[in-house]
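Notebook, p. 212. Picked up where the previous page left off. The plan for this session was modest: take the two constructs that came back from the sequencing core last week, fold each one, and keep the raw output in the notebook itself so nobody has to go hunting through shared drives later. Recording the first one now, exactly as returned: residue sequence, then the C-alpha cell string.
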Amino acid sequence: MKLLRTAWDGMRFLGSNKLRAFFMMAGTMVGITALTVIIAIGKGTEERIAQRIQNFGPNAIMLISGGGRDMPPPDLSVTTLKLPDAEAIRQEIAGVRLVTTTAMKRQVTMQYQGSETMAMVWAVDAEWHEAWSWDVVEGEPLTAEDMGSLAKVCLLGNTVRKELFGSASPTGEYIQVGNLRCLVKGVLATRGASPMGDDFDNRIVMPLTTGMRRLMNQDHVNQIRLVLTDPGNMSAVVSSLRSLMRQRHHITPPEEDDFRVVSPLAIADLARGSSRTLSILLMALAALSLVVGGVILMNILLISVDDRKREIGLRRAIGARRRDILVQFLAEALAVTLLGMVLGTLLGLAIILVLGRFTPLPVVISWESVLLAVVFALLVGTFFGVQPARKAAGLKPVEALR
C-alpha cells in the first residue's frame, strides 16, 4: 500500500505540471504511433500476400510469354509460346497434374444494347476451370464440345457483368466482343485482385479455339499454367520447365529467355517488397522517436529533481526512505510513458482507419501492436527514468533543505 501511495504522489505531481508532462510523453507518443502503424501494415501485407497466393494458386506455376522481367503480365507481342509447348510439358515434366493454356487480348470493347465497357479476353481450354479452381455461379462452364465446335460463347467476370447488365442476369443474352457476337453462357465466381493487384473480375473467358481463330487471329498462346501434384516439388519443376523451354525454343547462353516462370514465392516477394520501404522508414521513425522521447523524459526529470530538492529533503526528513523517493520518480516516468503509449496507440488506430479508407495500403488492426506498445513504454520509462530517480533518491536531507 505504501508503494502505491508513493507512486500516486508522483502522478499527482504530473497532474499539476501538465505542460512538462506533455513534453515528456510526446516522443513516446510519436514512437508508439509509428509502431502501431508499422504492425498494421505488416499484418495487412501478410493477409494480402495470402490472398494473392490463393488467387494465383499455392500449387501452381505460370509460364508466360516474354523475357527480361520476373513478373506478369505476359508480353503479348511475343509469339514464341505455342500449343505444342504445353503438350511437351504434359509429356516430359514429372509432378504436373494439369496443364492449361490461355491466349489473351487486352482492352477489348464489350457492348450490350446501350452499355459498353473495356475488358480483357482470356481464350482458354476445357481444363481451365479446374486448373484455376474458378467455377461459375450462374449458367454453365466451358466444355470440350465448345472447344471442338469453335462455339461463340463466353463467361463474364463479375465486373463485366455489372458494367453491362447491372443486377440483371446475363445468361442467355448476346453481347458484342470486339467483332464477335457471343452468347453469354454464364457468370464466373468473384475472384478479387490478381497477383499484380488489378481486377481479376474485369475479364471474360471463351473457348481457346474460338478466341484464337475468330477473335485474335493468332496461332500462339500467352501463358501456360501448371498445377502440381505436390507443391513441395515446385523448385524442381521450375528448373525442369526452364530447361525444357530453352531446349524447345533453341535458347543458349548468353541469349535471354523469351519466357518467364512465375511461382507463388515470386508473388509473395513482390507483395512484400511493395510495403518494405515504408515499413523501414516507419520503423526508423519509431525507434528515433522512442529514443528521443526517452532522452527528453530523462532530462526533464533531472531538471525536476533540482526544482524539487526542498520537497525531497522534507520527505526524507519526516521518514521517507531512499526507496520511496526512487519509486516516486520511477512512477512518474512510467506514468508519462504509459500515458504516451495510450495516446500514441489511439492516434495510430486513427491513422490506420484513414489509411484503410483512403489509400491502397493494406492495414489490419492487431492486438500485437497494443502488447508491443505496452512493452516499449515500460522499457523506455524504466530505462530513462532510472537515472533521475537515483539522483533524487541519493539527495541527503540536510543538503536538500538548504
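Okay, moving on. Second construct, recorded in the same format:
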Amino acid sequence: MFEALDALLLAGPVASFARLSLDPRFKRHWHSLYKGLEKGELDRAWLTTHLARQVPGAKLQYFCLDGTAWPRPRARTLDDRQYVYGPTQAVKGGSICVGYAYSLLDWVPRPHSSWSLSVNLQRIPSSATASEVGVQQVQALSETRRGYTEGLDIVAADAKYGNAGFLRPLQGQSCGIVVRLRQDRVLYRAPEPPSEKRRGRPRIHGARFAFKEPDTWGTPHERLAFEHPHLGQVKLERWHTLHGQHDADVPFDVVRARIHLERVKPPAPIWLAWQAPTSIPPHLHVTAETIWQAYCHRWSVEPGIRFRKQSLGWNLPRFQHKETGDRWSWLVALAVWLLYLARPIVQDHPLPWQKPQTSLTPERVQQSLVTLFEQFASPARCPKVRGKPPGWPTGRARTPKQPFQVVKKRPAQPQTA
C-alpha cells in the first residue's frame, strides 16, 4: 500500500489503476496492487484522530461537510449499492446513478482555493442517510479537537443539511455549524414574555419570519457592508434566535448574504443558519462576516473532489469488494495530505505551456514532486519471491459470485429547521 501511494503521487494523472504497477517505485507485480488493497489494513480510528490534530489549533479553522458518488452501475456482485445522485456536465442538471455515496469532512486551509483535506471519510451505507453519517463525523471531530485547540472550529454544509434533523444532534458541540437554508423557508422568533401570568401552555412561537416576505423581517440585529476582492460588494444581515414551526427546541441565527451588488443584476441572496458552539474563546468575536466566510470556505471541497477523481483516479478502479474501495478512498485522501505538506518545500516545474505559479495548486505540486521523492526511500519492505503459483486445481468447479439487488432507500420524513 505504501508503494501504491508513492506511485499514485508520482505517476501523474491516473489513466488506469493497473498501470500504477508500471511505475518504477512500485516494485511488485500488477496483481499485488489489487491484493494489497484487498488484504491490507488501515486503522481508520487512529487516522481520523491523527489528521484532525494536524489542523492548527489557533484562531479560526474552517471545515466542510459534503458528499459525492462513486458510480458502479455494472457491479452486480457488489452488495449495498444504492441509487445516488451524481452531477453531470448538463446545464443545471444531474443524474441518479447506481453505486456508493461517500461523506467527506474536509479541512479547508483558505477560501477560493482547490485545497481540501479530509479528516474523516466514510461510505454512506443504505441503512443510514447522509445527514446521520455527517452528524457522526462532526461529533467525532468535536470530541477529537475538544481541549486540543485554543481557537474555534466551524463546519459548513450545503442546503441538504439545513434541517433540524442535522442540527439537533449537534447541539452542545465544541464546534460551530453553518448550513445553507432554502429560500422559501418560514421561521418564527422566540415568543415575547407575557405581561401578566396566564393559564394554559406557554407560547412556543413568536412573530413570523418568512424569507420571501421582507415585511416580516424587522430590523436586523447586525448589518455589514464591505468590498470583497473576489465577490465584489457584499452586504450581510443577521437575525438572532429563530426556529422552525415544529422545531422550537433548535434555535439558530440567520444570515442573509448578498454579493456582487455592483452588478446590474446581482445574484440571488443566500440564507445561512448559524448554530453556536457551547463556548467561544474570549479573544474571538463571531460576526455575520465570520459566518459568511465559513460558508465561502465550503466551495473548495468541490474542486478538491474533482482533483481526486480526475487526477488521482479515485473512482477509476473496479474493485470486487466495497471494503477495498474504502481503503483506496483513504489512500487517495492521504495522497492529498502529502501533496499539501510538500507544497512549501517543492519548486514549481511548469510545463512549457504553463505559467509559473506562486501559490501552487494540488496538480502543480504533484507535477513537481518527483525531485523531492528522489531524496528518500520508500517505507515499504522489499518484495519477496514467492515462486510460481500452482494455478486453479484441475477438476474443481468455480462458484459464481452471488449477485445483489440495488437497495432502494425509503424516503426520509421531511424535517425542517
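Notes on construct two before I forget. The mean pLDDT is 89.
Flagging for discussion at group meeting.
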